[in-house]
Amino acid sequence: MKKKMSVKAIVSIGMLSSIAYLLMMISFPLPLFPNFLFIDFSDIPALIAALIFGPVAGILVAFFKNALNYIATGSATGIPVGHIANFLAGILFVLPTYYVYNKMRTRKGMTLALIVGTVFMAVMMSILNYLFILPAYTSLLKFPDMRNYVVPAILPFNIIKGIMMSSIFMLLFIRMQSWINKLTIVKSA
């Protein structure tokens, strides 16, 4: 028998998606990296949603923030390649973090979970960029082959992005840990 999401969960996912969308609009490049790579902290609300309501909620927040951003800003390719890449990066960060933290529900467990999430996202996004994302930009925008950016730019960029998101999330998590655990216990009861 399928569980239905509560109204509280649906409203919370909507609110966290809106916050993630606003955080996505506050993006910035890092010096020394290609100008198409931007840091944003919009995966933090997705991680909060996953911790409280489960992995599907985290995926939904990542999806809705990208859908809203694509509707509002569009895409240079006409196809949301960058939005798909952002969505994939989000779930590749949130899901491993969620699953590792569920095994070790402590601050040390969250620290380990964020490290695993960062490494998993960085490695998988490097592979996906090499195989699919950068070739899509090459064919859709007639750019030269950019796969040579994977090791010197994309991998370290995603590691730095993961470290920055993890640092900010840990500051929030320290304050919110008992609240998150309380909501998670209530949800599973």
Mean pLDDT: 91
Overall outline: globular
Structural class: mainly alpha
Strand order, sheet with most strands: 1-2
Strand fraction band? under 5%
Query: How helical, in percent, are the residues?
Result: over 70%
What is the H-and-E element order? HEEHHHHH
List low-pLDDT spans: none
User: Tally of extended strands?
Assistant: 2
Oligomer: single chain
Distance between the termini: 17 Å
Count of DSSP-assigned helices: 6
Profile the largest sheet.
2 strands, antiparallel
Which features would summarize this protein structure in a list?
6 helices, mainly alpha, 77% helix, single chain, two-stranded antiparallel ribbon, 189 residues
How would the blueprint of this fold be written?
Blueprint: H1 7-25, E1 28-29, E2 38-39, H2 43-53, H3 55-73, H4 81-103, H5 107-141, H6 150-188
Antiparallel strand pairs: 1-2
Helix pairs in contact: 1-2, 1-3, 2-3, 2-4, 2-6, 3-4, 4-5, 5-6
How do you describe this structure in short?
It is built from six helices and two strands. The protein is an all-alpha fold.
What does this structure look like?
The protein has 189 residues and is mainly alpha-helical. The protein is 77% helix and 2% strand. The chain has helices at 7-25, 43-53, 55-73, 81-103, 107-141, 150-188; strands spanning 28-29, 38-39. A two-stranded antiparallel sheet has the order 1-2. Strand 1 (28-29) and strand 2 form a beta hairpin. Helix 1 (7-25) packs antiparallel against helix 2. The longest helix has 39 residues, at 150-188. It is globular, with a radius of gyration of 17 Å. It starts with 6 loop residues before the first helix and ends with a helix. The model has no long low-confidence stretch (mean pLDDT 91).
